[in-house]
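Lecture 7 notes: from sequence to structure.
We start with the chain below.
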Amino acid sequence: MEVVSPILSTRQPVTDNISDFWETVSISFDVQKDSSCGGHVHATPLRSDNKFTLDELKKIAFTSVIYEDYVALILPPARRSNCYCKLNCQSTSNTGEGCPLHMLLLGGKTSQSLQAVASEIRDISAEKDLCVFMQKDRNVLWNFQNIHSDPSGKYLGTVEFRGGSQFLNTRAIMSWVAFVLGFINLALEMVSSPKIRRPSLPMDRD
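Predicted C-alpha cells for the same chain:
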C-alpha cells in the first residue's frame, strides 16, 4: 500500500497531523516491517509560488553531488542498494547510457571532476536541462523530475528525496523530513568557492 500525504507546511503542526494519521491507520491495519519499502520526502520553499529558483536548484543539485556518498552511509543497507533510489552519479538508462553527471564522474569524485560538474551546472539555463544533467530517470536518490512540467502540463515544483527507510511511525517520518529540510537549507546557505573542497571518505582514492 502506498500512502501519499497532502501538502504539509512547517508553519503548521506537522507532527500532530502525522500522529493522527498513524492513530487512524493502527485501528484498521496491522503495519508490518518490510525492508523493500521506503519513504519519499518532497520539498518546496515556503513562498507564495512554492517554487525554487533555478539558482537554488543548482545549489541543491551540486550539494547533493558533493555529499551523496556521505548520505548513502546513513541509509539502511536495503535502501543503499535499492534500484529505486540509486545515487545520481550512478544513474543510467536501461541500455547503460549514463546521464551527463555520471559521465563526468566515471573516474571518481576528484577536485578536477567536481570542478567540471560545478562548471556544467553553472552553465545550465533551464530547470529541465538541470534534471537531464542529474539523472536518466526518476529512480535516483535526489529526484529533480518534478521541477519542470511534464508533457501533460503537470507541475509539482518539488525536489524529492527517495532514500528514506520505512515510514513506520511518526518519529521515523519526522526524522527523515528533518534531514531533508536540513540538507536543503545547508545547500541554499553554502557559499560558492572557486575551488571545490570535499572531505575524503575512508574508502576514497584520488
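Points to note: Confidence is low (pLDDT under 50) at residues 202-206. The chain is about 40% helix and 5% strand.
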